[in-house]
Queue: 2 jobs
Job 1
Amino acid sequence: MTSVDLSRTVLRAVRRAVDDGVLRVAVPERVVVTVPGAGGWGDYATNVALQLARPAGQPPLRVAELLRPRLVGLDGIDDVVVTGPGFLNMRLRDSVSADLVADVLRHGSRYGFAPSGAPGGSDGSSQVLLCPGDVRSVVVTDVVARLLRAQGAVVRARCPDGAPGGAWTDALRVDAALFRDDVPAGKSGPEHPVRVRRCSGDPLVLGRDAGRWALLHPAPQDRVRLGGEHLVQRESNPLFRVRYAHARARAVLRGGSDLGLRPLPGDTGAADAELLALLADHPRVLRRAADTRAPDRLTRHLVAVADASLPLLADVLPRGDEKPSAAHRARLALAEAAGAVLAGGLSLLGIDAPDHL
């Protein structure tokens, strides 16, 4: 279950309370579901009771208590606890997290992609990206096209200044075919401009992977930094953390194989709730990054997945005389799922995900 799915479930509980006459409010279009904060409990939390309290004319705690019994048992929700001023904290059944990990493993690095053959748009026309010819715009356009294609779209690009070329397009692994057949203006429906702040330096000084990351990680309006911080093998470097987390995931899988330990999705405990929530949110992040033409959303998401993965990866395999258990197999499956998401995300960014680092 993703956070989007759970948001719909919460809305259904609100609708039931309204239908039962215990709440007199307009059902909101959406509610926010997040990982519990400090003092929270369970796998997910929502502030919907605080959101509805004023229009309902009731205290948030009362609204939360009215919604609680209507949430328990819905779509794999095992229990609900009210904390603080009226936050609803939800614990999912173990099978739900196991199903999520199994879903990631089933799709591998293509988890979050649209099903093969999905239509690219309601009118069947190509999406045309209008791209200036500077290096950052071209690399961002290249990744936006990858993201859109992963969602089933047919994508072409048009550069008013002519198709880009030169050593930097090859060195930065830009898909030349995206620009090769220049699209005549107005021939394929509305154009979607890719707007980013231009890069004033030469990203080739960083090499392909670090150069692409330097161009893609900042928000569109932010300045690109091309310093050596993108090359250092330290925790201060977000790209290093992402690739290191992937390499560590591959390493624990190799270690598990040496021990005859097979990944098997199952309950990994509440400590991994943040990582599970991030994995569940990955399809939404890909869709949002594609729709908004903002690859930096994906880069930040990958950093969050890496940071949530690293504590798990240090405690996956049995230690000393400890015998392999179902918990070890479940953690190994979660590690494999995290590695798959990191590999798939880096691939969409055009960046290698090495097994050894």
Job 2
Amino acid sequence: MRPSVVIILGMHNSGTSLLARLAALLGLRLGEQVLTRADFAVAPAYDYWEHARITALQDELLSVLDRHWSQPSSHWPIPPALWDRPEVRRIEQALRDVVAVELAQAGGAPWGFKDPRTVRLMPLWRRILARLDAETRYLISLRDPATVTASFASKGQVAPADAEALWRRHYVEALAATQGQPRLVVDYDGWLERPEVQIDALAGFLGASARGPQALEAVRAAIDPTLRTMRAQQFQLSPLTLQTAECLRAMVGGVEPAARIDALLAAAGAADRRPAA
């Protein structure tokens, strides 16, 4: 049997932590190295459910590529030639070793991980997963871009324009990288407004073995209504950001509007080719 990997994608502050936790409750293995509040000297507001080693390596790699989330260059395209730099190859090998160990420990059961940094590193992950001959599925966590922009700009101490551009970059690259692959877009607000619908969609995506009354009840109990700590205020988003958000909303629950996705990717590609002002 080919190893089974589920990768959770999304922008920082977009509900990827909640999605990882709920997926784990439905049977997805996250391994023993996940980050929770207990791992921090000053506890965050929620458990991150990120693989500690993968997160550390990806943080290092984004710095090597000059695309760290804290920098104004975070949302710039990454030239293909950079993926073959020796320091990038070194980190790639370290990530592959981590995944190989996790898959061996999973014993054939689906294993997955969550880290918002992953989206920007998908060309590298395609090489890793090909070498491991892994069958890969993707969960994409969507949250309102105005809310995320305001939240991430405040939390990360970055300019709102850079936060918005990084949101847009994450989702355009997530859609491009997962084209033709099994994927499910999940709406963060949907966990609070229509949890039963999203639980059913997530359980179905992860497989019939994930279903069951006890698992579903555990998921319901893990959805905290106080999680929606910030709502978007008046915030002027770019037309391309709005187009990206509308496309993703149309995909929630497993819909694949091919023409709409192609139009978005074409618009984003044209924007990248446009000379800077």
